[in-house]
Design brief:
Radius of gyration of chain B: 13 Å
Helix content of chain B: under 10%
Oligomer: heterodimer
Largest interface: A-B, 23 and 24 residues
Largest sheet of chain A: 6 strands, mixed
Shape of chain B: globular
Mean pLDDT of chain A: 93
Low-confidence stretches of chain A: none
Mean pLDDT of chain B: 93
Number of strands of chain B: 11
Largest sheet of chain B: 7 strands, mixed
Distance between the termini of chain B: 33 Å
Helix content of chain A: under 10%
Low-confidence stretches of chain B: none
Chain lengths: 112, 114
């Protein structure tokens, strides 16, 4: 069965520092992978998605993620954090039933 | 611009009241979903629908019910609200023609039951 694990429920970085949010997945088939962002009192918004094309995926707001099959990882990065990046981030994989399976989420805190 | 709309955004209600959370989408998606999200952030699928007159229970048991009479509309109802129902409820839809399973979310309905 597919599953998603996000390492670290809380990540804190300084403004201008590198953001790295970790996501590992398990899937028996080539996966479709997603990162969503949720700002306070909002729904989830798609940041980026991997659909078996390029392994380095660029998303909105300067985020990108790299699909590494050998490591079953899909980590999210941004070179320089901005205060507005503070939010909850969810990694997800498409399951066998067609529904998305979400990780537990990571809270990103950005310190001035 | 979101093409999936939830109302009300916030609702504070007393125990025992009946409530309906509305969800509508204008994208013509066949698949729609309701998630419950507690303060700990994790998303729990409570209902889904793959088309008109089709509804299924999700992974997390819920006392709520849903209906799908029209493609664009997927309301969630609680017949008798209790404090344990206090949570955020997120509606989503997907167009599986592309095969990716990508979900489009509404802005959520935050329910507080006193």
């Amino acid at each position: 069965a597919q599953s998603v694990t996000q390492l670290g429920s809380h990540v804190s970085v300084s403004e201008g520092a590198l953001v790295l949010l970790r996501c590992n997945y398990s899937s028996s088939v080539p996966p479709y992978l997603f990162w969503y962002v949720q700002y306070p009192n909002q729904g989830l918004q798609l940041l980026l998605k991997y659909t078996s094309a390029a392994t380095l995926v660029k998303g909105i707001n300067g985020f990108e993620a790299e699909f590494k099959k050998s490591e079953t990882s899909f980590h999210l990065t941004k070179p320089s954090a901005h205060m507005s990046d503070a939010a909850e981030y969810f990694c997800a994989v498409k399951g066998n039933t067609g529904k998305l399976i979400f990780g537990q989420g990571t809270t990103l805190q950005v310190k001035p | 611009e979101a093409d999936i709309y939830q109302t009300p955004r916030y609702l504070v209600i007393g125990t025992g009241k009946k409530i309906t959370l509305e969800c509508s989408q204008t994208m013509g998606h066949d698949k729609m979903y309701w998630y419950q999200q507690d303060p700990g952030m994790e998303l729990h699928l409570i209902h889904y629908s793959y088309g008109v007159n089709s509804t299924e229970k999700g992974d997390l048991s819920s006392e709520s019910t849903v209906s799908r009479i029209r493609t664009e509309h997927f309301p969630l109802t609680l017949e008798s609200a209790r404090p344990s129902h206090t949570s955020q409820y997120l509606c989503a839809s997907s167009d599986d023609r592309g095969g990716t399973g990508e979900l489009f979310f509404g802005e959520g309905s935050r329910l507080t039951v006193l």
